[in-house]
């Protein structure tokens, strides 16, 4: 549906869309002026280490792991919001230098600007990414993406007038409006009730089918990962979390949430995921 | 319906309490219960009507209409206050964003904030040799701190999600400041501006007693005339003006209330 911009044309076929090489992140405690307590603390907190992962173009990949395993840190690194302390991130073979509009980010708390209406929130993203575009162009494009998530009628409403699900749909429209090659989602449905969550999962699947983007989804829901993903990446418990397993989900698409649960393959993977998560969560809980 | 009755009732109670207050004041004054020659409410209301019915006469600096004096005070406050806001907001944003600016400017802010602005009056007179500019200068010093501190606090405590969105879109620093940080901290800025205006309005009365003309000087002048009822007139008018100014900022704050 959306024509890809020329920025992908120089991509070499030998490269994966996204490649993480020996990626690591250590958070150093920032020493504050006149803060004597910080003197004794050596080193820092190693959130993740030795992350190696390849993600192919237009695939849907979920990253799942026990809480506090550095999933969000990993996503922030890919988004360019934080810089890694080890290793590198390659997109189409090129090392990333920071955030960029080739990656759309969706946050758990929607992160809409409360002083802007829904359409203005999308226009803000468009104006920032495409400063050369004219006002009517921007307006039209914003409207198009708002109607893609079924919210054209709410275009002049403020975020506080919307439900959580509607807010996240606006955030999805905003992230996709800048025409990214990759969508990075940090537990996007974690704050929603079960029914709204199912609705938005279906919505996301249909949007993904039409728009053809690579999706990296952080989640702690096994069912969500199984329903949506081509590949599930399992992370070990933190600190110094790393990838412990990659599981391909070879379930036929489009997937129906009722039918899929009868599939023996689904149940097999689900059991495996549950075992892993339970083991890693136990490791977290029993240490602390 | 119910709401209409309750507003009408509130209004009636307010009027009634005002009437009772006026009567008690009159009785106390007439009986000389407080001190001799204390003006009663009737005399004060009479003066109020006299001053308000012809507010803008000008018979020289010691005999100005109360409206003229009020406008002189308001003009000083608005100029000094506006200059202070123009300085305080950018400086506050800078302090909120940069650790260097924060640590280099904060000692001065903390040291100067608790000083009564009137202490600056002789400094102003010495430097400017002009009472008008000195008045504006004193109001400037008065108004700067609350707006500055609130702005800096607003920037430092901004919801990090907004900044992350801006950063993830690759927004420049200038776009982030103008289109994300400034709108996000509008509630903080307005809260600071409201406090600044309240303090400026308090200080101008005291400053003008020493500087000449304006509503503060009017009070000082009427004290020299031993006309206490005219001082009460000024107090009523100062209170009413301060109330209107405060309500204006309350209205703006409601406009920029983002809370869900």
Automatic annotation (TrEMBL), chain A:
InterPro entries: AAA+_ATPase, ABC_transporter-like_ATP-bd, ABC_transporter-like_CS, ABC_transporter_ATP-bind, NO3_transporter_ATP-bd-like, P-loop_NTPase. One of its GO terms (molecular function) is ATP binding. Its main location: membrane. It holds the Pfam family ABC_tran. CDD domains: ABC_NrtD_SsuB_transporters. It is found in: Cell inner membrane. Keywords: ATP-binding, Cell membrane, Ion transport, Membrane, Nucleotide-binding, Translocase, Transport. Residues 18-262 form the ABC transporter domain. It is a peripheral membrane protein. Gene3D superfamilies: P-loop containing nucleotide triphosphate hydrolases. One of its GO terms (cellular component) is plasma membrane. One of its GO terms (biological process) is monoatomic ion transport. Belongs to the ABC transporter superfamily. Nitrate/nitrite/cyanate uptake transporter (NitT) (TC 3.A.1.16) family. This is Cyanate ABC transporter. It comes from Prochlorococcus marinus str. MIT 9314.
From TrEMBL, chain B:
Signal peptide: none annotated. Its main location: membrane. GO terms for biological process: alkanesulfonate transmembrane transport; monoatomic ion transport. Keywords: Cell inner membrane, Cell membrane, Ion transport, Membrane, Transmembrane, Transmembrane helix, Transport. The keyword Amino-acid biosynthesis does not apply. Pfam families: BPD_transp_1. Residues 70-249 form the ABC transmembrane type-1 domain. The chain crosses the membrane at residues 78-96, 134-158, 200-219, 231-252. It is a multi-pass membrane protein. It is found in: Cell inner membrane; Cell membrane. The keyword Chloroplast does not apply. One of its GO terms (cellular component) is plasma membrane. One of its GO terms (molecular function) is nitrate transmembrane transporter activity. Belongs to the binding-protein-dependent transport system permease family. NCBIfam families: ntrB. PANTHER family: ALKANE SULFONATE ABC TRANSPORTER-RELATED, MEMBRANE SUBUNIT (PTHR30151), NITRATE IMPORT PERMEASE PROTEIN NRTB (PTHR30151:SF7). This is Cyanate ABC transporter. It comes from Prochlorococcus marinus str. MIT 9314.
């Amino acid at each position: 549906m959306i024509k890809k911009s020329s920025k992908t044309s120089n991509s070499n076929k030998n490269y994966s869309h996204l490649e993480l090489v020996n990626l690591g992140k250590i958070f150093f405690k920032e020493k504050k002026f006149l803060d004597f307590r910080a003197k004794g603390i050596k080193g820092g907190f190693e959130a993740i280490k030795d992350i190696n992962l390849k993600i192919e173009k237009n695939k849907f990949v979920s990253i799942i792991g026990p809480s506090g395993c550095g999933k969000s840190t990993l996503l922030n690194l890919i988004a360019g919001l934080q810089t890694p302390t080890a290793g590198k991130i390659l997109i189409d073979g090129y090392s990333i230098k920071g955030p960029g509009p080739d990656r759309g980010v969706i946050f758990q708390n929607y992160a809409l600007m409360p002083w802007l209406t829904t359409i203005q929130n999308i226009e803000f993203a468009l104006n920032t990414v495409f400063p050369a575009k004219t006002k009517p162009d921007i307006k039209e494009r914003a409207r198009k993406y708002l109607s893609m998530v079924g919210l054209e009628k709410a275009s002049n409403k403020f975020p506080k007038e919307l439900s959580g699900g509607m807010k996240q749909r606006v955030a999805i429209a905003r992230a996709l409006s800048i025409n990214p090659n990759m969508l990075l989602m940090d537990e996007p449905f974690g704050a929603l009730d079960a029914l709204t969550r199912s609705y938005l999962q279906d919505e996301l699947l249909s949007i993904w089918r039409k728009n053809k983007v690579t999706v990296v989804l952080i989640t702690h829901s096994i069912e969500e990962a199984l329903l949506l993903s081509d590949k599930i990446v399992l992370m070990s418990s933190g600190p110094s979390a790393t990838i412990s397993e990659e599981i391909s989900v070879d379930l036929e698409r489009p997937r129906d949430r009722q039918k899929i649960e009868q599939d023996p393959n689904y149940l097999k993977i689900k059991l495996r995921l549950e075992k892993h998560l339970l083991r890693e969560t136990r490791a977290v809980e029993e240490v602390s | 319906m119910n709401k209409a009755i309750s507003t009408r009732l509130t209004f009636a109670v307010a009027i009634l309490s005002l009437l009772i207050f006026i009567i008690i004041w009159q009785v106390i004054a007439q009986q000389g219960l407080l001190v001799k020659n204390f003006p009663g409410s009737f005399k004060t209301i009479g003066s109020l009507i006299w001053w308000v019915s012809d507010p803008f006469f000008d018979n020289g600096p010691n005999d100005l209409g109360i409206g003229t004096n009020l406008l002189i005070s308001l003009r000083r406050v608005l100029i000094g206050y506006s200059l202070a806001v123009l300085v305080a907001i950018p400086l506050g944003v800078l302090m909120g964003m940069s650790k260097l600016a924060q640590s280099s400017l904060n000692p001065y802010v903390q040291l100067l904030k608790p000083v009564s602005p009137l202490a600056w009056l002789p400094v102003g007179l010495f430097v400017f040799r002009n009472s008008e500019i000195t008045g504006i200068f004193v109001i400037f010093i008065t108004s700067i701190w609350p707006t500055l501190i609130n702005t800096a606090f607003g920037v430092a405590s901004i919801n990090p999600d907004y900044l992350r969105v801006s950063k993830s879109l690759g927004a420049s620093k200038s776009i982030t400041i103008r289109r994300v940080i400034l709108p996000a901290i509008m509630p903080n800025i307005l809260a600071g501006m409201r406090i600044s205006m309240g303090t400026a309005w308090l200080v101008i009365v005291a400053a003008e007693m020493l500087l000449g003309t304006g509503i503060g000087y009017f009070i000082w002048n009427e004290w020299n005339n031993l006309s206490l009822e005219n001082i009460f007139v000024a107090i009523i008018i100062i209170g009413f003006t301060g109330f209107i100014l405060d309500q204006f900022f309350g209205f703006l704050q409601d406009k920029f209330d983002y809370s869900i």
